[in-house]
Design a protein that fits this description.
By secondary structure, the protein is an all-alpha fold. Helix content is 70%, strand content 0%. The longest helix has 27 residues.
Length: 201
């Protein structure tokens, strides 16, 4: 019976290490944070990090590896809904973390570390590609349904939606929710140009 609990304990400790590391990396930076400090913040012995991760860089990478299955699930969950509503729901979900006080610090560290870690770069690229494919498919379906401006290229539109979400993180403020403005901007960006003065039947 004890053996069946080990995987759960290991998963819980890995999660504790990642949570502690996220705070320290955001506040102090990757280079200025030691594995021993991460272990202490996680309430574990000093060598614990290297029992669950190959090195400190693997801890940093693991924080973002979690985004891959989460992003796949998000895209799959909204793949068959109303196109515009599904796009806005995905935007809401992806932009929610911009209100996390740790978001600005983590964003800075991603920029600093991605060029030093090809595996991290691959994770970030793959996550963005999944998001892009999801948005592009919804834009294309919305165009076919007559709900989205047919002049838009689905792939390019998806890219601009991602740029808007990235902008929320670049201007992150824990006291300000960027999602209402994102929804407004993206709704207007995607809408068919048919409600101007003089267009009434």
């Amino acid at each position: 019976m004890a053996r069946t609990a080990d995987p759960e304990r290991a998963a819980a400790r890995r999660e504790a290490i990642m949570r502690a590391a996220t705070v320290l990396f955001a506040e102090r930076g990757f280079e200025s944070t030691s594995a021993a400090e991460i272990a202490k913040a996680a309430g574990l012995s000093s060598g614990s990090v290297f029992y669950y991760f190959t090195d400190k860089r693997a801890v940093f990478r693991a924080i973002f590896e979690q985004d891959l299955p989460a992003t796949r699930e998000l895209v799959a969950r909204h793949a068959d809904g109303d196109p515009l509503a599904s796009i806005l729901a995905m935007v809401d979900a992806l932009a929610a973390d911009a209100m996390d006080p740790l978001a600005p610090g983590i964003l800075v560290e991603i920029v600093r570390q991605v060029g030093k870690d090809p595996e991290l770069a691959q994770v970030i690229t793959e996550t963005a590609a999944i998001q892009h494919a999801g948005f592009a498919a919804l834009v294309e379906r919305g165009i076919r349904a007559g709900a989205i401006d047919p002049a838009l290229d689905p792939g390019e539109a998806a890219q601009w939606i991602q740029v808007a979400i990235d902008g929320a993180f670049l201007n992150a403020d824990p006291d300000h929710d960027p999602r209402p403005m994102l929804r407004r901007m993206i709704t207007r960006f995607l809408s068919r140009p048919c409600n101007h003065a003089g267009d009434h039947a």
